Amino acid sequence: MLKIRGLKKSYAENEILKGIDLDVKKGDVITIIGPSGAGKTTLLRNITTLESADSGKIEFENIQGDYSALTRQETKKLRQSIGFVFQNYNLFNNKTALQNVMEGLLTAKRMPKQEARTEALKALERVGLLEYKDQYPVQLSGGQQQRVGIARAIALKPKVIFFDEPTSALDPELVGEVLQVMRSLAHEGTTMVIVTHQMRFAQEISNKIVFMVAGRVVESGTAQAVFENPRAERTRQFLAETLVQY
Amino acid sequence: MLNTDFMLQVAKATIKGVPVTLEIVIVSLILALPISFVFALLRLYSVKGGNQFVKLYVSFIRGTPIIAQILIVYSAFPSLLASFIGKSAFAIDPINYAYIVFTINAVASLTEVFRSALQTVDRGQYEAGTMVGMTSSQIFRRIILPQALVSALPNLTNITLGLVKNSALAFIMSVKDITAIAKTEAAFNYSFLEAYLVLWVYYLIISYAAELIFKSLELYFGRYRKQVKKRHYSNKEQLISVTTDKRRSPAQG
Fold first, then answer.
1. Is the Cβ of A76 closer than 8 Å to some Cβ of chain B?
2. Which candidate, A150, A114, A120, places its Cα nearest to that of A133?
3. Per-chain mean pLDDT for chain A
4. ipTM here
5. A94 to B131: CB separation less than 8 angstroms, yes or no
6. pLDDT at residue A245 greater than cutoff 80
7. pLDDT top residue among B228 and B190
8. Chain B within 8 Å of A163 (Cβ-Cβ)?
9. Which listed residue, of A71, B67, B92, B106, carries a Cα 20 to 30 Å from A111's Cα?
10. Ordered domains of chain B (ranges, CATH)
11. A163 strand-pairing partners
12. Whole-model pTM?
């Protein structure tokens, strides 16, 4: 469904992404893991055009071409068929939970208000926040805000949802509720690409793991293969360091 | 000690100046708001030329006393106009010059207010907007602007209060505002203190009213920033139910 080839991105002299390939099929739950500074977040931001990649090919729906040559129309189309969940939630502070979810339906999808409301309520129900629909973001806990962020993404019925460290900004006791929502999305067959440091969670819900170091993919494969039988030495080392805490 | 009869007389006479003072404040604000907003955008988006012009304008106006600006406008404009439309220029109601000076002045401070207010909305919300498929102008109109305006309100209050107080200088341009009337009354009756005390009260009332209006605007439009009592729904309630369960379970078992 989504095919990325040779994605590259540099900031000043630093090459952060040194040619990344990624294949996402319908129903995939792909988790990108790796040490800090590996370029995981940068990868998500460049795939989704939040930042403009220097070069690299993309194939998605009927978009085909190079990132450096995407037309305005193509960028718009791409953004409308993907969802993004931010580390810092990034909810619209001047809107209630319900309005946050409705916003994209009203503006980008030009849905009539009543219909948008119905859709938004459905999305809020899926993340278990129906009774908080009229609260503003400041009145919600971090975990609740992130769940609204997820509702905002799924309401638009995107083909694939990108999660950029969705639980990194949360207090430990709030991580569970967000992971639970993501777990249920995965079970419903939502196509997801996740960057996270929750290794056990990654192992549990992903059908594919991508291990990145210093702007390159070192190893990728099924969760079982990567976690239980890593081929690369660097992967073994990383897993030993991160899994020992549990 | 104070001649209260005279104070009442002054109060009655001066009330005719209240609409004039309010007019100066309101008209200048209405003229200055859109101009300064555009100026702020020129600065924020570093529009070539525009950026430099606004920077220069702001430091020029902020760096000179308002009384000097009044004197310059009041002496330059009528004769400048006269060279175009002849003698009739001198018959123009001087309140128009007051509008010009106070607008010029308010634009300078409001530009800075809008500039910093627009910067208070974090970039993350803009990114979130693009990711739900909104266009830049939709994000600006529906997300950034409403928040920026709310965070500009406290400063807007200050500028309005400043404008109320500075408008007292309009008497220099022979505008018949409350200050001008009170001064005439005072000079006519040789009772300066009484007249000025009345004047004082008038400004206090106007300022207080302005403050109240802005406060309620802030409360109304800024209601999304208010943290209503947080619901401690999760942990405590769960803990309580867990402990009661535990207490029950031995009895059941």
1. yes
2. A120
3. 93
4. 0.92
5. no
6. no
7. B190
8. no
9. A71
10. 17-174+201-252 (1.10.3720.10)
11. A85, A194
12. 0.83
